Batch of 2 targets.
Target 1
Amino acid sequence: MTPPARQPHATATLHAPAARVIRLPAALKLAVALGLLLLLVASPWRGYAMAGGVAGGLLLVALVARLNVIELLKRLLLLEPLVIGVAALNLVGPGGLDRFLPLLARSSACLLVMVMLAATTPFTEMLGVLRRARVPALLLTVVALTHRYLFLLRDERLRLQRARQSRTFARRRGAGTFAHSWNALAGVVGMLFVRASERGERVYDAMRARGWR
Amino acid sequence: MHIPDGFLDGKTAVATAVVSLAGVGFALREAGRRLPPRRVPLLGLTAAFIFAAQMLNFPVLGGTSGHLMGAVLVAALLGPAAAVVVMTAVLLVQCFLFADGGVLALGANVLNMALVAPLAGYALYAALRRLLPGERGRLVAVAVAAWGSTLLAAMVCAGELAWSGTVRWAAAFPAMTGVHLLIGLGEGAITTLVIVAIRRARPELLPDAAPLESRAGGRGALVYGLLLSAALALFVAPFACPWPDGLESVAARLGFDRAALTAPLLAAPLADYRVPGLPAPGLATALAGLLGTLIVFGLALALARALHPRGAGAPAATGSAPAARPARAPSEG
């Protein structure tokens, strides 16, 4: 097994190569993010000014650092339904809108903080911060492996699905469609687990060969 | 079910973080002690697998779709402690890489999806497997456990939101349980189908009765049991009793100011506990819950019967033959 190629992390598309924010220490960025989150959560209930200020400030930083702001906002919008969904539970009952709007503003600002953090901090550096924070080694190993094989297994799943479709196991119309497609998809997931566990064995051998433990 | 930042208040964030730290810490110790080193990479690969599987959408009626959560799948495949570690890793990566689920809410999210879901699911699974032997028993146990774990995680999630005063319990509880009653059915069906597919392709990957670490499970069961009861007692029990009438009227009477909301939510149930006898709404809720559980159990039996007909000793393709056979053909590459 050849040594794994360097994983292009998910943030690769988000920044111009020379963006300076990305070279700041991860611990500092994490601390700033946590501080901003605490500030937002502790702000008065109708703290639109605080939410707006934090969001505006972050966007300004993103612009100055020449991050891909469009991509940032896209990612924000992608996650926004979750926030709206929980906040919308407040619309039921008296005074719903009065609770819905502040909650939405605050949580969206929090979400922007997290999106910015994820976009400017390579995951491996985040792992380094967690290691220094004395997160147990077993958990860190598992998290690192998860990150390493996440994209690989996603592609593996796409290959499995494509193979299945090319053998005309496409969705069909009429009776039995539902059970048919669920059965087919479950087959893909099951096979994916089989392959993941086989790869796990190989990875273990490779890690041992390189002196792990 | 990922709670974003900004929805939990200080006391809830701290309380959930403390319970989660204790639970994950214990699970890590158990896994470190009982797991052979050869299986450690498998945990990471399984977490990545859960990620990839969660991206696969299963069509539901009317153009909507749902996806697997996977807590019970992992627990049934690798055992409870490993499942806790795997689900925690999934949540950490989701939080820090994809900003899915908040950092301040990480404790709550870990509690719901990495502790309550796999542990309660595993407890259900193990109990049902003891009651129902054989392959069909395994399928029924998996289906019911996956459903129950989804529902329970949603209930704890609703409790946390209500405890924070962000959403009223009277709104959060019916919405969360109602939706997850149905989502849980999907979770149960997918999990069962995946287990069947794995058994058909590679039966040796499925542990028999006792997966990995559950044999010496006396202390583990005790600690996990305590953890689950703590989660339920903290976040669900304070609200559960007088639902829905009592709380709804109290909340309506006292208005919807946030500061005013937190206090009566906690005080009202205590006042009601002093009433001797079971209040009628509580009884009705309990009966409805019992009925729902029985229906799910029946559905799980029917599913298991369809997937594993009587006399099918060796794993064989069932139902519509081409459809049921998984992609076993060599498609490596």
Target 2
Amino acid sequence: MGSEILVLVEHHEGAVHDSAAELLGKARALGGEAVAVLLGSGARGLADGLPADRVLSVDHPSLERFLPEAYTAALTALVKEREPRLTLVANTTVGMELAGSLSARTGLPLAAYCVGLELEGDSAVATSQVFGGKLHAEVELGAGIASVVAGAFPPAEGGGSPAVEDVAPPAALDSLSMRFLARVEPDSSDVDITGEDILISVGRGIGGEENIELAQELADALGATVSGSRPVTDAGWLPKTRQVGKSGQTVKPKLYIACGISGAPEHLEGMRDAELIIAINTDEKAPIFDVAHYGSTEDLFDLLPELTERLEAAVGAG
Amino acid sequence: MEIVVPMKQTVDLVEELELTDDGTDVDREFLKFVANEWDEQALEEALLLKEAAGGSVTVIGLDEVDVDQTLYAALAKGADRAIKLSGDFEGGLTSHQRAAILAQVLGDMSFDLVLIGVQSPEDLDGQTGVLLAGTMELPHVSVAIGVEPHEGGVKVSQEIGAGVVHEIAVDGRAVIGVQAARQAPRYVAISRVRAAMQSGDLAEQAAPDTGDAGGLTVRRLFAPESGSQAEMLSGDAEEVAERLVQIISERGVVKA
């Protein structure tokens, strides 16, 4: 085992994902050699500015965009050859996919939803979220793989001009059973919730599509927009454009009122930096209260109309 | 198209999670278990795919608490076959162990696609679907929000984040981790579930012994310390509403 800590640099449409600086920063903080892995097609230029000690670049047409089979083959080949001390990926769609593939193909252990990482001698110990973030688990990771939750570690400061080493792509990339068809951008005809000052956000606790109206009335009183958590958009109660969280939008409004949202890690990731967070949830142990500034366990069906009424009166009077 | 949907029973997160005496697992004895919600999404997508392309849907569950209910409900919804893998799973399984068992069972079956929930609340050592694919050396696509017939194979819509979706064509056998079906999972009346139970079409076979399939050694489980706990507002709905109006006004977010 070497001293390298491999960090997969996620990038989309020519832009490096925010996770890269966080993971590379952690790799350096652990005292390892922070080695950025850049898989792409003509993406070598992204190496410049990365806060890494070195960059390994694998270039192949099939790596132009995230194609799971191609990325898995390229990363697995690298890890098998280099036997790093640790391999870090972001806990994104890309990272979740690759971490598991890599673990199964290399036999290396994997800590998913990782929020903490330390070395004990040469061996890593990870802390991971489990049971929807209600508990954390401290696990022995050894020389394994961690898929790291966004914001778990501070980003490395400054960039650099790391040396780039070209690595030949594995032959498997020339015989894939998958093909990239299209990248579909989000529907831009709806409101952009990332630009809104106030969001009234609803979760599973709203109970049904017919109750969205309660949130809409409050939003109207505040000049706000209604957004929601994953289960709400999956159920079709709100359009996908309104989804807050890991697979939806990351929002930083001045005021975020979470109604009936328990606060799964994937949701918190998308809203924890809002300036003022008010959470309404009947479960006093819901993780949403860990990031909220103010909370209430009152039933939202009682509280929302009361709040709407008072705000209408107050705004009308002011 | 022959589709297999592995279904898992998982701890109901609404419940209070008590720890075992040694603090390395949740005390499973008194917990309520429910079908993993993402597996329910995978089942729905599998049924939609079968309706569009023909073929069959087979659900497979390990003998975990209340799995019969989940498997019979799947049959009532339109699955063609249900298989229960018997064994002692009371202590829970790592994702690696689950993937190893499924890989061995699937190795003896003929299928085109595996659709499985993209994750479960217990995926400490990774998601079962992607581990299963890796173990079987099959291609895999995670976080799918649509799987549709496409030129003899399927087109998978994969959520990348910030509303962006990638469309990927997959030929041949593959494992797809489903985040959400194209429509909400269908409702099935309890009477139809009972009818499925009475027909007793649950095939049972012993789960294979896979030995040490890996996973992680948990040193301890603990409730995370939150950096900033919310200030909880007391009183009834009227009093809380009053206080919230005050808070919102003080912050100058709205002129009230």
